[in-house]
Each structure stands twice: as C-alpha cells, then as structure tokens.
Design a protein that fits this description.
Number of strands: 7
Largest sheet: 5 strands, antiparallel
Order of helices and strands: EEHHHEEHHEEE
Structural class: alpha+beta
Oligomer: single chain
Number of helices: 5
Radius of gyration: 30 Å
Length: about 230
C-alpha cells in the first residue's frame, strides 16, 4: 500500500508563504548541518561554563539562542520543531561532549607521560596498595638487576626492609591526613649526591598514589645548547 503524501499547510506571514507543518527532516542538508552545529555549540558552551547538564530552564535558554541564529540565517522552521529536535538529541549531545573530553584528556596524557619518560631520574609510580603501576625508562634501567619493568604490578614494599616499609606507610598515611600534605624529604644519597622525596599524587584533591622524586646535586656536565 502506497504511503500517503503529507499535506503541506501554508500561511502567508509578513509577505512570505510559510509551511506551518514543516519538519526538521524537510530542511535542506546544509540547513540541518547549520542548526545541528548551533545546537551543539550552545549546549557545549553551557556545560563548559556551569559544569553540569542543562536543566529544563537552561534547555529553553539554549533553544532560544539557537532559534535566534536560525532567524538571522532566514531559515524557516516552526520553533516547536526545534524544541522537539533538541529534546530528542540531548542525550547524544552529552555523549558527544563526553567523548570529546576523553579524546582531549588522552592527548594531554601523552604530554604528561613524555615529561616523566624524558626525566633522567627514576620515576616509580605506585597506587595506595603500594603496587607499582608505572616505571619510566630511567627506573627500568636502574632497577634492571631487580627485574626492570617486570616489577610493574608487584608491591614496592617487597623491595624494602621492614623499617623502610614502615616509613613508606607512615608517609602515605600523612598524605591521606590532609590535602596540603604532598611532599616529604626522605633520604640523601651521598654516593650519587642526590636528595630523594616522596610526592603525593592526587585527582582533584583525592589521594590516589605516590612516587619518589630524585634531585641530583652534581653540576651539569652537558654543554649548553649542545645541538651538534
């Protein structure tokens, strides 16, 4: 059975003949793309500014801004159709924004990881269970006799005597006691002329782990700007 064709309802408004029952799907592809872009732009702007998903009032404000842009572009579509379109697409808008944040975060992680990997001092990162979750190349090399990167996944405490284990746990407990507790001087290695610190790792203030920071005191022997 053939599908019945939709009857278009027109009305002359301000000298223009407008289709009152026009749907979003009736728009030209370029018009759809423009409106879709405006909707996402305003949605992202709100979430970025207020750090929350828009409520009903905010939804109306977002749609009103989009409608203003549609009118400026002289695109005719009933306002109710834009409200319906926004409500249908809102979950997808949030998923798209979340995906963009993940992609952006991953791009930053590459920068952070590179900073640690290029450090000539050993960096061994542990979680709060004292499990080694990451070792930079310098740490892998310095710990080669103990297993190198095979230490990842094992407990850092296994590499220390009972006295050192107790000190490590006391420092971690101190980190956990206050957000301002983040840096502790733990040791000076005379042979290598370096100071060693324990540093807290936090996610928005919450303690998630720690690592050792090595600061060498020897005068640099590398020539300045030795690029050749």
């Amino acid at each position: 059975m053939a599908k019945s064709k939709k009857t278009k309802i027109h009305k002359k408004i301000d000298g223009q003949l407008l289709q009152l029952n026009k749907k979003f799907s009736d728009l030209k592809m370029k018009q759809k793309d423009k409106i879709t872009g405006w909707v996402y732009e305003e949605y992202r702007k709100y979430v970025t500014e207020y750090d929350k998903v828009p409520d009903l009032l905010a939804d109306e404000q977002i749609v009103e801004v989009v409608i203003d842009k549609i009118n400026e572009a002289q695109i005719w579509i009933p306002e109710g159709e834009i409200y319906d379109y926004y409500r249908r697409k809102k979950p997808q808008l949030q998923r798209r924004l979340d995906n963009e944040k993940v992609i952006k975060f991953k791009s930053y992680v590459s920068f952070y990881k590179s900073i640690v990997d290029q450090d000539r001092a050993s960096v061994v990162i542990c979680n709060l269970k004292h499990e080694i979750i990451y070792m930079n190349p310098a740490a892998v090399t310095s710990c080669a006799k103990r297993g190198g990167d095979k230490l990842i996944g094992r407990s850092l405490l296994d590499c220390h005597n009972p006295e050192s284990r107790d000190k490590i746990q006391r420092v971690v407990d101190w980190f956990a006691a206050d957000k301002s507790h983040n840096f502790v001087y733990t040791f000076h290695n005379e042979k290598l002329n370096k100071d060693v610190y324990m540093v807290a790792l936090r996610d928005e203030g919450k303690l998630i782990g720690y690592y050792e920071k090595h600061e060498y005191r020897n005068v640099e022997t590398m020539k300045q700007y030795d690029l050749w």
